[in-house]
């Protein structure tokens, strides 16, 4: 089947006059229609980022000093893929945030990504809870688990929320090691939150994972205050 390549068509004066008469007959101001067509609503990088976030965290603001320091460090090493292009996150340090449920770790993680975008840096990112991650990677018919693991492993910026919340097993330890080791080797920035105390991570994750985490992350222990309960009480 042959296809024709047609040149873009322009509207002639006769067509424009007919459109104007139709609009006038319907009491529609042609100037309003022209403004809507010629001036689309602006859509900023921050708008695009917020659209991909869970509603609860779309307005998250990072204010923890060490989280802000992490965002600055990642932004400083961002590179432009070509002259004049926007700088993109490609490598950088990682951050491990530990604290009780409700301490604000997830809020800070999403706020850190927003902070990067606000600084003018482009970032391709992905966020998942550890439980969802293991569910996605568990071998099952019709799913290429290895391909999914590779996709998560090479994502420029990854948030892993609630590490340590899933039931421990040899398979969980092995998958976690493979993911963390890949990101460690390629120096890909990773934001990790956990409800476990840092000293308890080794018992859950094993020596290989905790060794990699110790080398690749700055560790932050949040105050043992459940902010959700505190706001409710207030």
TrEMBL record:
A GO biological process held by the record: DNA replication
SUPFAM superfamilies, alphabetized: P-loop containing nucleoside triphosphate hydrolases
Domain called IstB-like ATP-binding: residue spans: 95-209
Pfam families in UniProt: IstB_IS21
Record carries keyword Transcription: no
Protein keywords: ATP-binding, Nucleotide-binding
GO molecular function, one term: ATP binding
Protein's name in the database: ATP-binding protein
Species of the source: Streptomyces kasugaensis
Organism lineage string: Bacteria, Bacillati, Actinomycetota, Actinomycetes, Kitasatosporales
């Amino acid at each position: 089947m042959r296809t024709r390549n047609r040149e873009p068509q322009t509207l002639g004066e006769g067509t424009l006059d007919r459109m104007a008469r139709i609009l006038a007959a319907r009491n529609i101001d042609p100037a309003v229609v022209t403004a809507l067509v010629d001036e689309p609503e602006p859509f900023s990088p921050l708008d695009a980022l917020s659209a991909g976030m869970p509603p609860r965290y779309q307005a998250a603001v990072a204010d923890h000093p060490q989280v802000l320091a992490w965002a600055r460090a990642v932004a400083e090493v961002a590179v432009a893929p070509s002259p004049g292009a926007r700088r993109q996150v490609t490598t950088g340090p990682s951050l491990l945030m530990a604290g009780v449920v409700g301490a604000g770790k997830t809020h800070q993680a999403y706020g850190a990504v927003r902070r990067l975008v606000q600084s003018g840096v482009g970032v391709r990112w992905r966020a998942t809870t550890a439980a969802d991650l293991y569910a996605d990677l568990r071998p099952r018919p019709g799913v290429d688990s290895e391909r999914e693991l590779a996709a998560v492993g090479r994502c420029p910026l990854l948030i892993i929320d609630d590490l340590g919340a899933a039931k421990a097993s040899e398979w969980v330890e092995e998958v976690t090691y493979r993911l963390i080791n890949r990101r460690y080797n390629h120096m890909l920035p990773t934001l990790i939150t956990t409800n476990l105390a840092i000293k308890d991570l080794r018992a859950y994750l094993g020596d290989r994972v905790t060794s990699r985490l110790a080398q690749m992350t700055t560790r932050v222990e949040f105050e043992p205050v459940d902010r959700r309960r505190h706001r409710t009480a207030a």
